[in-house]
Amino acid sequence: QLMEAVKAVFRSWDNPRANVYRRMNEIPYDWGTAVNVQSMVFGNSGDNSGTGVAFTRNPATGEKALFGEYLINAQGEDVVAGVRTPSPISKLHEEMPAVYEQFADIANRLEQHYKDMQDMEFTIENGKLYMLQTRNGKRTATAAIKVAVDLVDEGMIDEKEAVCRVDPKQLDALLHPTFDPEALKKAQVIGKGLAASPGAACGRVVFTAEDSKEWHDRGEKVILVRLETSPEDIEGMQVSQGILTVRGGMTSHAAVVARGMGTCCVSGCGDIVVDYEGKKFTLAGKEYHEGDWISLDGSTGNIYGEAIATVPADPGSGYFGRLMGWADKYRQLKVYTNADNPRDAAQGYAFGAQGIGLCRTEHMFFEGERIKAIREMIVSDNVADREKALAKIMPYQQGDFEGIYEAMQGHPVVIRFLDPPLHEFLPTKEEDIVEIANEMGLSVEKLHNVIDSLHEFNPMMGHRGCRLAVAYPEIAAMQTTAVINAAINVQKKHPDWTMVPEIMIPLVGEVKELKYVKDVVVKTADAIIAAAGIDMKYEVGTMIEIPRAALTADEIAKEAQFFSFGTNDLTQMTFGFSRDDAGKFLNYYYENKIYESDPFAHLDQKGVGKLVAMAVQLGHQTRPDIHMGICGEHGGDPTSVEFCHKVGLDYVSCSPFRVPIARLAAAQAAIKNPRK
Ligand code: PEP
Ligand code: MG
After folding, report:
1. CA–CA distance, 526 with 185 (Å, rounded to integer)
2. 583-591 vs 16-25: helix axis angle to the nearest 10?
3. Are 183 and 308 in contact (CB under 8 A)?
4. With contact defined as beta carbons under 8 Å apart, do 362 and 192 qualify?
């Protein structure tokens, strides 16, 4: 019996639940587990016996007081199974005062010894107290912060230790709505996807971004269900409580955009069968129609086929501020935010971002009149027409940049030039093609021809990034004009700020292509600055997101004043995995223990990280004062942040809602691995 029990514990290391748990908590498989064998005491030997569980502080609120429950004449199993209702630990004070006193004394001693809140199991056998185990107690984010701060005030730990006591990932729960725990207990999970953007969402199903907007405008709460999202869906995504997609991974469009907006998103739930025509989807053998209520948990990936009440985010009182203050004191990495519009920029700034590490300019092209001008540019077949169309977009871009500069109050802003392949701006559905051709005064055939000519077998490796500017330098010239004009205007308005616009050229793999685009930027920028009669500096840098750029970073640094590691593309191209499709097969890799985690969520330090480290070193070799950061989604992932600290980056940049997480993670990295 004993051996079977021991074997059962070892076997449990391998059950599917354990695999999922380990992946969630980043515990390596090869750690293995252990078994303690101890002699038994019996809590069920009469009314003078009992068993219970207690915490030295309240694990939900952090309040300092014994918290727990016990059952008389029972074993641990009875407490767990819930067949009898246990009594609160305070009652033990009345029932067995001596035992209670002894227990309280031991609890206090254990906490003093471990200098942390303890979770203890005990048994009373015939009036004698036995301690079965103690461990650091699991706790909510609110409790984690309060306990850490209180322990400093009680003189038990120092500030650095307190900073290390809170799991940065836990902060999510304070910044996003969560489900009402009581309501959640009764709810049933109907499916699971990737936990792409945290938070809890509850709303009625709609299938198009237009419907999201329409339903929202009449006061409905909606959840947008799509096969995948595209930049065109942005407005609908913005008004949705949550986003659910069938395809896509952690760095696909829906995931990146939702995280930027702080909206809950579950992506890549391949079990869903969507019927757009019939306005319904099937999951777990049941049909869900437009208007049906569902709920999403973007922190676990769970999908529920019903409405579950949510409770709003609450970063808490002064405790959060004090802990974050200590984090800022000890971290060495700066924390920037990725933001594409003034609203996200202001959100990131409010969460403590010290700059913008990535402004994806293409996201500004989809609204109203802008998309028309972009399309006009795309269908133009000569430079003059393209320039005419671009001139229409310029004022919009400039206005956006001014808004972003204002929101960041003079802090650094890195603006990235147009990145996606142009076909993303053209319609795909026949009815839209007809409508847009009419709108543009083109024949449907001509528009079809343009769309066909832009078709690529592998758009992610196609005509995108700086390759667009190499083919159409006028795009880079227009964007430069917008950036520099905006900076000049804001500088004039705020003479006390020092505006140094940073222009970032994406998807560079060869120094000559960077030089080619940079020459366009410099020529345009210098002319505007000279004409304005102003003394303004600006910088031109690049993303390192193609393996060849990392390998030749010494050459690239001759032209680049800064590097920003685009680890989404760098991961995609290093692994040769599509960032939009990898979700479909990665599960097999986890099940077979080939990979333990999603390389798009946690930076692959062995492979991709080697390229990053190499590029950091080569870049510094050529240009000692080069500054470097990361702007891929890994910039907000705690283990990846630690890696960035270790390889010597200057900053990490992540979506606004992850800024506090990155600040805390950066502090922990610095405390554990101080830089010289
Ligand atoms: C990246 O590739 O890591 C990046 C930040 O750019 P994007 O996600 O826009 O391709
Ligand atoms: Mg990229």
Report:
1. 62
2. 110
3. yes
4. no
Q: Which two tokens stand for residue 105?
A: 């004394």
Question: Residue 133: how many CA atoms within 13 Å on its side-chain side?
Answer: 12
pLDDT of residue 423: 92
Domain count, the chain: 4
Rounded distance from Cα 648 to ligand 2 centre (Å): 21
Contacts of 350 (CB under 8 A, 6+ apart): none
Ligand 1 centroid – CA 251 distance (Å): 8
Q: Is 163 among the domain residues?
A: no
- Residue 474, exposed/middle/buried by CB under 10 A (0-12, 13-18, 19+)? buried
Q: How far apart are CA 107 and CA 66, in angstroms?
A: 8
**pTM, to two decimals:** 0.88
Contact between residue 211 and residue 312 where contact means Cβ atoms under 8 Å apart: no
User: Ligand 1: does its nearest atom lie under 6 Å from the Cβ of 421?
Assistant: no
In whole angstroms, how large is the CA radius of gyration of the chain?
28
Asked if residue 85 and residue 30 are part of one domain, the reply reads no
Residues tagged active-site: 253, 631
Classified as helix, coil or strand, 334 is: strand
Residue 47, domain CATH: 3.30.470.20
Token pair 């970073």 in the structure block, residue: 553
Give the range of the structural domain holding residue 345, as residue numbers without chain letter. 331-364+384-421+458-672
Q: What secondary structure letter does DSSP report for 6?
A: H
Euclidean distance between CA atoms 223 and 265, whole angstroms: 9
Is 286 in the same domain as 403? Answer: no
Atom of ligand 1 nearest to the CA of 358: 5
Q: pLDDT by residue (tens digit) across 187-212?
A: 999 999 998 888 999 999 999 999 99
CA distance 364 to 149: 42
- Closest residue CA from atom 10 of ligand 1: 569
CA distances from 68 to 82, 141, 194, 253 (A): 14, 19, 34, 45
3-state secondary structure 192-232: ECEEEECCEEEEEEECCHHHHHHHHHCCCCEEEEECCCCHH
- The answer to whether the CB of 360 is under 6 A from ligand 1 is yes
pLDDT tens string 302-340: 999 999 999 888 776 689 999 999 999 999 999 999 999
